Amino acid sequence: MVEDVRKLGVFEKYLAAWIVLCILVGLFLSQYLPVLSITINNMQIGGISIPIGVCLFLMMYPALLNLQFEELKKLFRNPKPIILTLVSNWVWAPLITAFLAYYFLAGHNQLIVSLILLGSSPCTAMVLVWGVLADGNQEQNVINTSLNTITIMFLYAPMVSLLTGIQNIPIDRMALVMSVFVFIGIPMVLGHISKKYITSRKGKKWFLEVYRPAVGKIAIIALLTTLVVLFSLNGNVLMQHPEEMILVSLPLLLGFIIVVGFNLCVTKFAGLRYREAIISVIIGSSSHFEIAIATAISLYGLGSQAALGTTMGLFWEVPIMLTLVFLGKKLSHKGFWKR
Fold this sequence. Notes:
By secondary structure, the protein is mainly α. The chain has one domain (18-333): Up-down Bundle (Na+/H+ antiporter like fold). Helix content is 79%, strand content 1%. It has helices at residues 10-13, 15-32, 34-42, 50-64, 79-104, 109-119, 126-133, 138-166, 173-202, 204-240, 243-269, 274-285, 289-300, 305-333; strands at 44-45, 48-49. Strands 1-2 form a two-stranded antiparallel ribbon. Helix 5 packs parallel to helix 8 (138-166). The longest helix has 37 residues, at 204-240.
């Protein structure tokens, strides 16, 4: 039985507005209270900011509560849409994003890496909400997100290494592997253990309706806190060079358009019905921005261009996914897919 997925709450519904507000607050602090973010960043152990490390963990843990091993046994009931989604996640999306980054961001290695980190990270969290809003097949949604959670453990670091290697961009591959272990592996194990423990003590209903929504809100608060610190540290650079945000946004937006358009066409020509097709398009076109931001900070630091670039991925993805939900319903009414 597929778990019910909650509707958008206040935090999720207005996430785009919260992101803009956090950017403005961060820029304000960079000009009038720069010592705050610097103090937070300097609270380090082994080069890792402790407060930001806690925030990054709180961003990842709720997403990994969505992993459901028991749903994977249903994989072969209707494998076509799931296979198409996996191919998009691990072939088309990373390649398209990387080549656009090479073209538009030549000479800005950290920004190139930020797009590669985004393009190589299939989403495992917010797509559950987008799928509900689009009235898609939630059983497929849960299977795909569970598969993405597992495959990202093994494919993320090799894919990022391959795509950065094509352009001979130096990257600390050991730090990349450690990021996957710390920000995916550990939260995945803790998520599985805590889920089993809580459901055995409180029941599945309490876990789904109370615990998971609560930690989901904490995750968004942690994400927004990280954004404030990110933009407070980068504020002076951004105020002097706002073209960097525009520069990284061009390939990001073009990449979204190309990948979404490609997935729309593939699902139509594959003969998928709407409820399966829209889930394939949503999951195949979205990014796991939490792991991308976490990895960028781990590799280059909190005040880096890479961290800023992955943050812009988050900034654009929320309105684009909401637009895709609306577009999917319109196309369905016009008979684009089978009903």
